[in-house]
Amino acid sequence: MPEQTGTEATRTIPKLPATPGQTIGPFFEYALPYAKDGELVPQARPGALRLHGTVYDGQGDPIPDALLEIWQADEDGTIVQEPGSLVRDGYTFTGWGRESVDNTGSYTFTTLNPGATKPGSAPFIAVVVFARGLLNKLHTRVYLPEDTAALAQDPVLSALPEDRRDTLIATRESSGDLLWDIRLQGPGETVFLSFAEA
């Protein structure tokens, strides 16, 4: 092996700056939409419901180019580990969906009420938000409104100021559907979760 000169021996590789964590596009738009992306279950399935709402910016204006992903347990509270999220077969519930908002900032998922993952816990759907101007995705949750005792004991909700908890609880409509708006900033800002770096 040839001997290294002083310059080669002391040369260090410069530290590179971090690149943005994620963007909504348009760079990768071709890979995002797919057939029935927001339809975790067919609308005709017994127990099917709509989780819907609008994504707003800090000024209270709808955001027309956000993208949402949801992850949830099934009706029995089982964390589903079935493959096939990107190719809907009309039968398999995978617990995952992705939906782009429309030009009025509105989104709709067809899904099921998630069950509690352990006795006494509050059922929820995990939500990830991607949008213009967000270099990293935002994590949050939406809880079902009915079990007030479980909501009061939930460790995430209990850690929040009382006046902020409602930003994570959906409204049950007379149809059985869930209405839940997401506010990225400003009055009524949705609570977003942070996770320690691994």
UniProtKB/TrEMBL annotation:
<comment type="similarity">
    <text>Belongs to the intradiol ring-cleavage dioxygenase family.</text>
</comment>
<dbReference type="InterPro" id="IPR015889">
    <property type="entry name" value="Intradiol_dOase_core"/>
</dbReference>
<keyword id="KW-0223">Dioxygenase</keyword>
<protein>
    <submittedName>
        <fullName>Protocatechuate 3,4-dioxygenase subunit alpha</fullName>
        <ecNumber>1.13.11.3</ecNumber>
    </submittedName>
</protein>
<dbReference type="InterPro" id="IPR000627">
    <property type="entry name" value="Intradiol_dOase_C"/>
</dbReference>
<feature type="domain" description="Intradiol ring-cleavage dioxygenases">
    <location>
        <begin position="48"/>
        <end position="116"/>
    </location>
</feature>
<dbReference type="InterPro" id="IPR050770">
    <property type="entry name" value="Intradiol_RC_Dioxygenase"/>
</dbReference>
<dbReference type="Pfam" id="PF00775">
    <property type="entry name" value="Dioxygenase_C"/>
</dbReference>
<keyword id="KW-0560">Oxidoreductase</keyword>
<dbReference type="GO" id="GO:0018578">
    <property type="term" value="F:protocatechuate 3,4-dioxygenase activity"/>
</dbReference>
<dbReference type="GO" id="GO:0008199">
    <property type="term" value="F:ferric iron binding"/>
</dbReference>
<dbReference type="InterPro" id="IPR012786">
    <property type="entry name" value="Protocat_dOase_a"/>
</dbReference>
